[in-house]
Amino acid sequence: MTDVEGRTPRADAARNREQLLAVATRVFVAADGEPSMRAIAREAGVGIATLYRHFPTREALVDAVYRDQVGRLTTGARELLDRLPPAAAMRHWTDLFGDWIATKNGMLDTLLAMIESGEIAHAETRTELLAAITAILDAGAAAGDLRSDVTAEDIAASLIGIFTVAPPPEQAAKAGRLLNLLMDGLRPT
C-alpha cells in the first residue's frame, strides 16, 4: 500500500487507515442515509483532518470501502474453501455477500453516482464476484457437495433476490432462513 505521493505509509498511518475503513463500514451498515464524514471520524475516534488525510473526499472513502468489501468477498471464497467443505464454504460466503450488501446502506447514493460516472467499474466487480462463486461451485461439483448444473449467475440472482426481500441487517433472521433454503436447493439429488 502506498499513499498519494507513492510512499509507503508509517505503521500508525496504516493502522489509522484500516481503522477508518472498518469504522466507515460499520457506520455505513447502520446508517439509514449517508452519514457525514464528521460522524465517521468521530466514531473512529480521530479528527476530521485525519479522515480527510486518508480519504480526501466522500467518494474516496466510498471507493475504498467498496473495494475492501469486494476484496473480502473474493479472498473470502478462497479462504473458506481452504478450511471448509465446499457446501459450507458457499453458505458462509453467502453471509459475506449479505455483509457486502448491508454496507451499501449508508453509501448508496454516492456509490450509484460513482458507478454512473465510471469511477467504479461495476462490470469488473461483477466479474470478480462471479469468479468467486464459480470457484466454490466448481469445488462443490468436484466433491459431489454441490449440484453441477448451477451457474454463478444463478447464485448471484438468488442472492440479490434474497437480500432484496430480506435486507440486512434488519432482517438477518429471514435472510438466514432463505439462504438455508437456497443451500438445500444446491445439494445434489
Question: What do you see in this structure?
Answer:
- The chain has 189 residues and is mainly α.
- Helix content is 74%, strand content 0%.
- Helix 5 runs antiparallel to helix 7 and helix 5 packs antiparallel against helix 9.
- The N and C termini lie far apart (47 Å).
Number of helices: 9
Strand content: under 5%
Number of strands: 0
From the N-terminal CA to the C-terminal CA, the straight-line distance is 47 Å
Return residue spans where pLDDT drops below 50 for at least 5 consecutive residues. none
Sum up the overall morphology in one term. elongated
Q: How would you classify the helix and strand content by structural class?
A: mainly alpha
Determine Rg (CA atoms, Å): 18 Å
The residue fraction in helices comes out at over 70%
Q: What is the succession of H and E elements? A: HHHHHHHHH
Largest sheet: none
Mean pLDDT: 90
Short description:
The protein is mainly alpha-helical and 189 residues long.
Which key features would you list for this structure?
single chain, mainly alpha, 9 helices, elongated
Provide the fold topology:
Layout: H1 11-30, H2 37-44, H3 48-54, H4 58-83, H5 86-103, H6 108-117, H7 122-143, H8 152-165, H9 172-186
